[in-house]
Each structure stands twice: as C-alpha cells, then as structure tokens.
C-alpha cells in the first residue's frame, strides 16, 4: 500500500480565524420548540442529509491534509472573508413563494431534528410569520478554518443555485454571533434512508430518473459556478412525495481552477475515487469532476442492489485498499438490470479517471437519454413506499415484488 494512502488518515492542521465558543456553549442548539421547553427530537421525521454509522460499512468522514503553502492559505482566507461579506448582505430575511419576510431566530419554531452531519444539524421548522414548514440547517460558528469554510461554501452554493430544479432550494439565512441558520425547502427523505425503509434494492426506473437529476445538478454546478461537489452519496440525494429528486450538502464542495480541483478537502472514504486516494503528487492535488462521476457510480450500485459494494470492510483503510487494488464494483448479472444501466455504471466506475467520461459524455449515454423522456411515476412510488413502510412491521411485509409491481401496470 503506498504511503500516500496513510496520509489520508492524518489529522488536519487548522488555523483559528476567530475565537471559538467554549465547549459548554456548543453543546445545545437553541431553537424555540413548538411543544415544550426541552430539546425534543423527532426520530421518525426524515429529510435532509445524514451520515450514518454501520458496523460493517464505514461512513466516517476523512480529514484530508491541505497543501501547506502560505499563498494558498492567504487566498483561502481572503475567499472566506469575501464570501462572508457577500452572505452577510443577504441575511436576516427569508424569501418564500416569491415573498420576502424579515426573519430572526425567534421566528423559527422547531418541530424536531430530522438530520445531522459534519456541517451541523437539520430541523423541521415552522416559520412563525407565515406558517410554512421548512428545513433549517443549524451550524456552529467556530474558530476552525475548515468548519468556517464549509459553512460559507454550503451557503454560497445554495444561495446561487436558485435556478436549478435539481438542487435543494434555499430560502435565506440568519447569521448570529454563534450560529448560521440556513432555511431550505423540506424534502421527504434521502436515498440512504429510503433504501433502509425498503430493506432492499430501489427499482431501476427510479434510479434512472435519479441519475438524470444528479448528473444535471453536477453539470450545473460545474458549468454555472465552477464547483465540484466532492461528497456525492445516497444521503445527499433527496426525494419527496412530489417526485422531485435533488442534490444537497455543499459544505465540502470546491472551486475548480482550469476545470480541476486544487485542494484536498474532507470526503467519505466509502465513495472516494481512486485518483483522490492515490494522487501522483499528494502535495499538489489535481483531479476533476470525474471524481464525482465515480461517487455516483458507487451510489448507484449500492441503491440498485440494496447493499454497499464494500460492505464487508470494517475500516476506512480497508475500503481505500480495496478501491485501489481490486476491480471496480459492477451491477450483478443475476439481478436482470438493463444493458444500458449496466453499461452506464461501468462507465462511471472506470478506474482510470482519464478514460472515465465527463458529464457531457454521460448525458449522451443511452441510459440517461431513455430516462430523460420516459414517464416514471416517482411520486406514486415514493408515496407508496412511505405509506407502507411507516412502521417497522409494515416494512417487513412490503416485499420487493410488491414495490416493483408498481411499474408493471
């Protein structure tokens, strides 16, 4: 195993940009609750991105070292300051259904936590002034440069992506001395939780529509904003009962310079592309949007089979080793996937990134072209799944045959 793989597991050296709150101040999130004065949370509500931990499936986020160059650091700090200045001009109000409303933290009535991740916690919230039910991501402001950068990157991307139907919509943000609150549309659940509800594979037709949405979102980020997502995985793909499919969580997205990423940010080892694990020169990262194409391929294999392809690994290191040393995962022939789907996944999981297709090439693939025009009742399927798997007992009774039969009529 090359030494650069070991470097992925080294701790990040951080620079403190502003005083960090004391540990005791960071323990609780102060959203006013609708039903009581405590910190009640709803475990049954599902929506925004989550990072789960499974004994047989690594989900930890890697802290990747960034190049230690003074110029790079000063540019990053200047970029963070500039973004903060721009965002501060847009805070203090929410724009919902075309109407703009002044907003403070006291206007947000929590109805329970619905997700948590590396960048913060997500709550189902009622906006007191209008009664709208939305999702609010709450992130702590700290002196950690990388955390600050994640917060600002997430905000920057969602605020600018209001014209893309495949990216989670942002209503606005509220910034306080200790927290950043990002108000977003409330979706139904993520693909990760949906897979767990079904306890098996997601039908190819649903994945076809999902693929069209995610590739379109990634292309939009690259073409419109020069951004690479860097954390494509099932927990960052959201669906709702309207049949919408959207990409979320842009905290570790990166700017592209000459179409290439020049920094090594955090990422989930389970979905990381080979060229990010073992770059030619670890001190000078140089990869492009094809790293996200690999992550999409891994996600599709997981959702199509109902099992993570590296499920027998117990550590991130085992996953990284398998990604580098073994043949890429593929869709099993025994599951009767279409030839188009098998071919598309194979293209996404081309190990040599120089031969892996970029977004425009992917959009020409027969699999995507078919699902761009094919009518699929994603909303009906989603609603049926959510209704019939509302309780643990009912989810066991709802067989894969029944789920797939929704499309046999």
From TrEMBL:
GO terms for cellular component: cytoplasm; nucleus. Gene3D superfamilies: Phosphorylase Kinase, domain 1, Transferase(Phosphotransferase) domain 1. Its cofactor is Mg(2+). It comes from the Eukaryota. One of its GO terms (molecular function) is MAP kinase kinase activity. Residues 108-368 form the Protein kinase domain. One of its GO terms (biological process) is positive regulation of MAPK cascade. Residues 1-16 form the signal peptide. It catalyses: L-seryl-[protein] + ATP = O-phospho-L-seryl-[protein] + ADP + H(+); L-threonyl-[protein] + ATP = O-phospho-L-threonyl-[protein] + ADP + H(+); L-tyrosyl-[protein] + ATP = O-phospho-L-tyrosyl-[protein] + ADP + H(+). Residues 32-65 are annotated as: Disordered. It is found in: Cytoplasm; Nucleus. Belongs to the protein kinase superfamily. STE Ser/Thr protein kinase family. MAP kinase kinase subfamily. This is Dual specificity mitogen-activated protein kinase kinase 7. The gene is MAP2K7.
